[in-house]
Specification:
Keywords: DNA-binding, Elongation factor, Protein biosynthesis, Transcription, Transcription regulation. The chain is built from 3 helices and 7 strands. By secondary structure, it is α/β, with parallel strands linked by helices.
Length: 155
């Protein structure tokens, strides 16, 4: 992770990260430790696939906990007091694309989730939209070719 770059998150995104951290640390990790202890008591560890699996799960969980601790330490809330009329981090943008309306939220990289229409400010579409006004158009290269978007609304 680049130390010079702050991790930008919305208030909701920060709450989600804190919730995941708390759940991992206080609920899932203790369960994984107990699972590992039970598997260890099953005998020969060299042929115990449950022990190996529990050990790997715990290591993965510990890695995610450490990652979240760093993210939460480095996180900077996105200010929602963005300039009126301009696309900025934290805003919802209504776009016209391929004959239909789509609403996207511009978020930091840690919150990006295309399935929820949350796009990162550093994605090709996010970069193209930043600073645009209602009525402006942007073209973005996509695997299917160039896609034209028109900004219909900003909130």
């Amino acid at each position: 992770m680049d130390k010079t770059q702050k991790i930008l998150v919305t208030k909701e995104g920060l709450e989600d990260l804190k919730k995941e951290y708390d759940e991992l640390l206080n609920l899932k990790r203790p369960e994984a430790v107990e699972r590992l202890a039970q598997a260890r008591n099953q005998g020969d560890l060299s042929e115990n696939s449950e022990y190996t699996s529990a050990k790997q799960d715990l290591a993965f969980m510990d890695g995610r906990i450490a990652e979240l601790e760093q993210v939460l330490h480095e996180a900077k809330l996105i200010s929602v007091n963005h300039k009126k009329g301009l696309v900025d981090l934290g805003c919802k943008v209504t776009l016209h694309v391929n004959g239909k309306k789509e609403v996207f939220t511009i978020v930091g990289e840690w919150e990006a989730n295309p399935m929820e229409k949350k796009i990162s400010h550093s994605s090709p579409l996010g970069k193209a939209l930043l600073g645009k006004r209602i009525g402006e158009k942007v073209e973005v290269d996509a695997p299917v070719g160039r896609i034209l978007y028109k900004v219909l609304g900003i909130e």
